[in-house]
């Protein structure tokens, strides 16, 4: 091997770049094709891929010329790009740098997409009436996707973070290329026998061709006929497929699908603990309230209890009896004292007292007091009462005394 015939990769790439630069045709060229991928970068540049039935070419439109673009590029558009072909020596790649882009109409895939979409929509397969709610708390999640793709890894990572107790059931399906649509539909049907709480159907991002299996009628019908709530998770947020329209819920990415399907266990646990705390607080408050009510009612029952009433009445009767006895004793003492006073007063005026002092008490035969000589006559019988007996006598002489 001769040393002068050996070149480095950089030398070859630079040589090709110089050839491209010297080629007048490539400095101002018109290229037509169909957009299969398109990205509006945050820098303002537009990166896209243009293809025909046999080849693919990368393209870029710099921010400085995007102001002249009269429409928004999207996958499936047929376009004519005017620009120059540049090479990127460090990677040995080339792309067309667009100076302007004209729209030529929708591509074949886009036309097929719109046609099937219109047919299925007319059949009612997109109607919200058929959309089933996604369970709030799931324990098993079925996934129909490739076992080697990024989608299942993203779903497992999200599940591990949000709820490690959720079981992931994977059906390995072909998600790209010939036979992919049938494989996906078979996976959805197979999940019917497993009966997970929710089913995620999808894959990672790619071109319209890469995602085309999810635009097939067989997949749409499988999702529509599935009795398990289905979340579609195909590609990136900007990608939309027929599966998204038919599914019960559309997620922008597989990771987002896992977020929507799997509840956050820690958040759920904290919520339960919070509810438990407030429930115990409420129960304690109710118990205290019930105790107070019981005490109040018990007091009222005790107050109106017949036995209690009898005891109270007996106590009251006893108190009244004591008060009555005391009052009677007081009255007796007072009356005795008054009686004594009256007795002494009467005793001073008593005829018997007078009799003991030498006086006598004279009555006639009819026991009427005689204290006037004019009331008697001679021979009348009189009775003279003394302290130790009574004398019966008759009037012999009446001598009347007059005041002089």
Automatic annotation (TrEMBL):
Query: What cellular-component terms does GO give this entry?
Result: cytoplasm; exodeoxyribonuclease VII complex
- Tell me the keywords, alphabetical order: Cytoplasm, Exonuclease, Hydrolase, Nuclease
Q: Read off the Pfam families from this record.
A: Exonuc_VII_L, tRNA_anti_2
Subcellular locations according to the entry: Cytoplasm
Major localisation: cytoplasm
The record's section on InterPro entries has: Exonuc_VII_L, Exonuc_VII_lsu_C, OB-fold_nuc-bd_dom
State if Cytoplasm is listed as a keyword.
yes
Q: GO annotations under biological process?
A: DNA catabolic process
Q: Describe the location of the OB-fold nucleic acid binding domain by residue ranges.
A: 7-102
GO MF annotation, one: nucleic acid binding
Q: What is its EC number?
A: 3.1.11.6
The Exonuclease VII large subunit C-terminal domain extends over 125-294
- Taxonomically, which superkingdom? Bacteria
What chemistry does it catalyse, as a reaction equation? Answer: Exonucleolytic cleavage in either 5'- to 3'- or 3'- to 5'-direction to yield nucleoside 5'-phosphates
Q: Which NCBIfam families does this chain map to?
A: xseA
PANTHER family in alphabetical order = EXODEOXYRIBONUCLEASE 7 LARGE SUBUNIT (PTHR30008)
Q: What does this protein do?
A: Bidirectionally degrades single-stranded DNA into large acid-insoluble oligonucleotides, which are then degraded further into small acid-soluble oligonucleotides.
- Kindly state the subunit structure of this protein: Heterooligomer composed of large and small subunits.
Similarity comment text for this entry: Belongs to the XseA family.
Name it.
Exodeoxyribonuclease 7 large subunit
């Amino acid at each position: 091997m001769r040393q002068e015939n050996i070149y480095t990769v950089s030398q070859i790439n630079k040589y090709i770049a110089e050839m491209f630069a010297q080629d007048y045709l490539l400095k101002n060229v018109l290229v037509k094709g169909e957009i299969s991928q398109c990205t509006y970068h945050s820098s303002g540049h537009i990166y896209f891929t243009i293809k025909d039935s046999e080849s693919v070419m990368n393209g870029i439109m710099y921010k400085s010329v995007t102001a002249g673009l009269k429409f928004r590029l999207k996958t499936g558009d047929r376009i004519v790009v005017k620009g120059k072909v540049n090479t990127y020596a460090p990677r040995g790649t080339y792309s067309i740098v667009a100076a302007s882009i004209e729209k030529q109409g929708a591509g074949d895939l886009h036309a097929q997409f719109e046609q099937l979409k219109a047919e299925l929509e007319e059949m009612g397969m997109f109607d919200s009436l058929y959309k089933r709610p996604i369970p709030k708390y799931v324990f098993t999640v079925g996934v129909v996707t490739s076992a080697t793709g990024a989608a299942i890894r993203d779903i497992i990572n999200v599940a591990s973070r949000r709820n490690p107790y959720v079981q992931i059931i994977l059906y390995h399906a072909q998600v790209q290329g010939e036979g992919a649509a049938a494989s996906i539909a078979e996976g959805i049907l197979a999940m019917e026998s497993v009966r997970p709480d929710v089913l995620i159907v999808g894959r990672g991002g790619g071109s319209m061709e890469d995602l085309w299996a999810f635009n097939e009628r067989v997949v749409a019908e499988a999702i529509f006929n599935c009795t398990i709530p289905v979340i579609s998770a195909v590609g990136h947020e900007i990608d939309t497929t027929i599966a998204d329209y038919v599914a019960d819920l559309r997620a922008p990415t597989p990771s987002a699908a896992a977020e929507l399907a799997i509840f956050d266990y820690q958040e759920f646990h904290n919520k339960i603990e919070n509810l438990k705390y407030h429930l115990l607080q409420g129960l304690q408050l109710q118990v205290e309230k019930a105790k107070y009510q019981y005490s109040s009612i018990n007091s009222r029952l005790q107050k109106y209890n017949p036995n209690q009433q009898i005891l109270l009445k007996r106590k009251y009767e006893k108190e009244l009896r004591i008060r009555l006895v005391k009052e009677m004793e007081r009255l007796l003492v007072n009356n005795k004292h008054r009686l004594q006073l009256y007795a002494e007063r009467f005793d001073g005026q008593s005829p018997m007292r007078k009799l003991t002092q030498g006086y006598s008490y004279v009555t006639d035969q009819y026991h009427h007091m005689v204290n006037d000589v004019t009331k008697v006559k001679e021979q009348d019988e009189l009775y003279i009462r003394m302290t130790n007996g009574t004398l019966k006598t008759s009037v012999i002489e009446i001598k009347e005394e007059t005041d002089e």
